[in-house]
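One chain shown below:
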Amino acid sequence: MKNKMKIKDQPLNKASEINRLHVQTEHCQNLARQVMVLLNQRNSRTDLMKDILFLIKATTGFEAVGIRLREGEDFPYYETIGFSKEFLHAERYLCARDRTGEIIHNSEGNPYLECMCGNIICGRTDPSLPFFTEGGSFWSNCTTELLASTKEEDRQGRTRNRCNSAGYESVALIPLRCDNKTIGLLQLNDSRKNLFTLNLIRFYEEIASSVASVFGSTEREENILEPGKNFITPGETVMTYQDSDFNIISANKAAKEMLGLPSLIGKEVKCYTYYHGKDSPPKKCPSCKCLLSGEPVFFEMYEPHLNKCIQIRAFPQFDENNEYKGLIHFARDITHEGLLSDNRYFKRIESKINARVTTDSKYYEGSIENVSEAGLFEMNLFDIDVADFTPKKTLGVHFNTPSGEDFNLKCTIVWLRLNRDNPDSLMYCMGMEIISPPPGYKKLVKTLQ
């Protein structure tokens, strides 16, 4: 992937060090903003973990990233990107076991977790040593030198050293803590040396803290970390990275399957061709808003080319000169979720019609964003009292068409959600169904096609 965080192995002079820190700061700000947007979406734990790891890897260029989460008494890898199958097979679990395969417990009855990952999860750290932080993290810019210059006592116990034997020199292990409990850790590995600074580790501690707080609350609400608990997750997340010329230069397996992507090596694989079936970027492509605003966007749409309803999050990427260099795309197939599973959604037509909503003698101004022949449509509303908009409630919608026709519709609220496209504006998106569409309504829909 192009334009990764520009940190080299060799010593840096003062000017290049200042430039490096500036680049790191820009990347950190960009990554933090985008992770926060992800955390504000109510997605499954699996999708969110994949999104966050993909975002970290795409933004920083680390060769391998992973997250461990508690499962019973152990903390196996929950999601990873970049590690070999051999590495994951050997390092998946942390619990020490005896010759019979039983988990070894300490005098307090807790399982003994091995290696440096176990140290971080169990809090076996010493911040007076340079490779531990006050936040309980471990980091090294050269594991070979670390192993040669320290003893097991310094490293708080025996380490397996598999990261080093696999060729990883820069390694960081960041605890995921919530309510004073460690629920897992974030791992960053790279074969290059000198990829970390103390400030950068502290930044990732903040990211880890935010992630842990979300998953800690999810654990309390859904108990999803119970061992052996089964749960259903939405469609697998499609992840692509497009450069400034709309070429898809990186994609995960789900993207290749859903979009039917060819090999990305030595070819121009345009995103608009495979997402939209077009020869050029569509004029109304919501993702292209990123190019103008420089801010992430989140939206749902029906894509005729894919014959799917998809939920998309798009994140613009910038280089050290603040020049646009590409776009990270997260997409999910939500065709069979909630209202969008209704086949009538497939006939929706984009519109932009100012309208007034009447509910309990109150008036609210908004705009109709799309309509369907069957009488389903979406509206954007500003500055509303959400208590006036409960599901299944009946309200009135009045608007004038561009041709001057007057419509007064009686509608039922199907759903209401906060629209996160613009974080600076409190806007709600509402889905409604018309009760007995009038004769002129279908004619209106046809004129909008």
